Amino acid sequence: MELTVNQLTPDFCVAPQLTPDTMAALAAAGFKTVINNRPDFEGGPDQPTSEQVRQAAEAAGLVYRHLPVQGNYQSPEEIAAMRAILDEVPTPVLAFCRSGGRSTKLFAAATQL
Asked: Do 36 and 22 meet the contact criterion of CB atoms below 8 Å apart?
């Protein structure tokens, strides 16, 4: 599986849907934290669950956070929650969703706070 990562800042990148089997490669690439912005089962039954990704991430030594948000709207509370996560986790961070788009929008909004 090829991993598509878009670097937004030196410490923050986004990616489309990640799977449990990519977590060790992310850790080897130097990432410290993974943030999942995708609700479970949004993509149907074949999408890995947050719990499956969390287990693999933690087994690889990564910090894992799940902040599921909708693609077309992130509430002020969700934006503030993203800001709080960014303030507490080690960098560099890789956030993901279906395409990387909502993680990008959420990061942009959170860094404006």
From this structure: no
Sign of CA dihedral 67, 100, 58, 1: positive
Which CATH superfamily is 6-110 part of?
A: Protein tyrosine phosphatase superfamily (3.90.190.10)
The answer to whether 30 and 110 are in contact (CB under 8 A) is no
Residue-level pLDDT at 82: 98
Q: Which two tokens stand for residue 81?
A: 């929650």
Domain residue extents for the chain = 6-110
User: Structure tokens of 1?
Assistant: 């599986």
pLDDT tens readout for residues 8-37? 999 999 999 999 999 999 999 999 999 999
Other CB atoms closer than 10 Å to residue 11's CB: what's the count?
14
